[in-house]
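User: quick one, fold this
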Amino acid sequence: MDEPLAAAHPLVPSADARAVVLVEGISDQVALEALAERRGRDLDAEGISVVPIGGAQALGRFLNRFGPQGLDVRLAGLCDAGEESDFRCALERAGLGSDLTRVEMERLGFYVCVADLEDELIRALGAASVEQVVAAQGDLGSFRTLQMQSPWQGRMTEEQLRRFMGSGGRRKIRYARLLV
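Assistant:
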């Protein structure tokens, strides 16, 4: 089993969770937990669980379970730009607002990545630094192969890296921890 996947917490929060951060996938969970660890935060001790929901379409189910109609724990979340409308609709259906803007979603604790979390990390680190991480993982040859493919030739390195992270099985999960 992939080490980051094995290290990911269960898909349900601990019984003593006081707050739940809902994210789309396991790579998002791994990245947020790695960031917390890097900043010296113990999410378990703080009663915070990061829960991957398996895609934006599932948000409503999790809001019902953990929100005001369910366990009523403090909620937050993170989604890709392409899933913003799914998140907005689910928040509204759960009674957390109406005609929500992105700013209002943020006030509720739900944030939208420019493209996705990998894009945010690549932009934060810069392409050269991410390429160094790819090289250190022994994946530079595979990345160079992607760059030579006609759909990716001439594209910005950041776009190529984002595509590279999203391809290749569990690569997205593995790099989530490494890029934080």
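User: anything notable?
Assistant: The mean pLDDT is 92.
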